[in-house]
Specification:
The chain is α/β, with parallel strands linked by helices. The chain is 40% helix and 14% strand.
């Protein structure tokens, strides 16, 4: 049984905390319902070994399901291109977060603000700060796809094993691929 508490205990998230993702199908439904989802993938996605493959492969499959606008931070763009996924934008993390917070910004494709932001592949402390910033300065729904609970997101997995994480990401992909 996984606990729903911040993995980094020295920080205090405040009274508003993430809802735990206990059913990955909920994430699939939220992404399908979103008008403008955004996926931000950090450098750890290229390094994180899952049960069968690297995390980056799961993120590419998620991005392809609904043609989700995807931002690759750091050197992650290289992995997207090597896998034949050319739809990802390359941008430093701080820049994309500042743009998401800007109410005047029209998105990477000039079609409007993003209503759902999913984040994965960042060091825990960095994602904590990014989600904290989005929590306090936007009305955007945020989902942490990490295996460690992030209380500053709107939705987050509880602290789970790599096996559970792999299964949950696979279920999210299956839900997005279903009609």
């Amino acid at each position: 049984m996984s606990k729903v508490e911040a993995w980094q205990r020295a920080e205090v998230a405040g009274p508003k905390k993430a809802l735990p993702i206990t059913k990955p199908e909920v994430v699939s439904a939220m992404v399908k319902r979103a008008k403008r989802p955004l996926l931000i993938v950090g450098h750890k996605a290229s390094e994180e070994e899952m049960e069968k493959e690297k995390l980056i492969h799961y993120m590419i499959r998620i991005a392809k399901c609904k043609k989700i606008t995807t931002v690759a931070t750091a050197h992650t763009i290289k992995d997207f291109l090597e896998e034949g996924f050319e739809g990802a934008y390359h941008m430093p993390l701080v820049d994309i977060i500042n743009r998401v917070k800007d109410p005047e910004w029209k998105g990477l494709d000039e079609k409007g603000q993003y209503d759902l932001v999913m984040i994965v592949g960042l060091p825990y402390y960095m994602e904590w700060l990014v989600l904290n910033s989005l929590k306090h300065f936007t009305n955007t729904t945020t989902i942490s796809l990490e295996r460690r609970y992030h209380p500053n997101a709107t939705w987050s997995f509880p602290n789970i094993s790599i096996k559970e994480w792999t299964e949950n990401l696979s279920k999210i992909i299956d839900g997005l691929e279903a009609k």
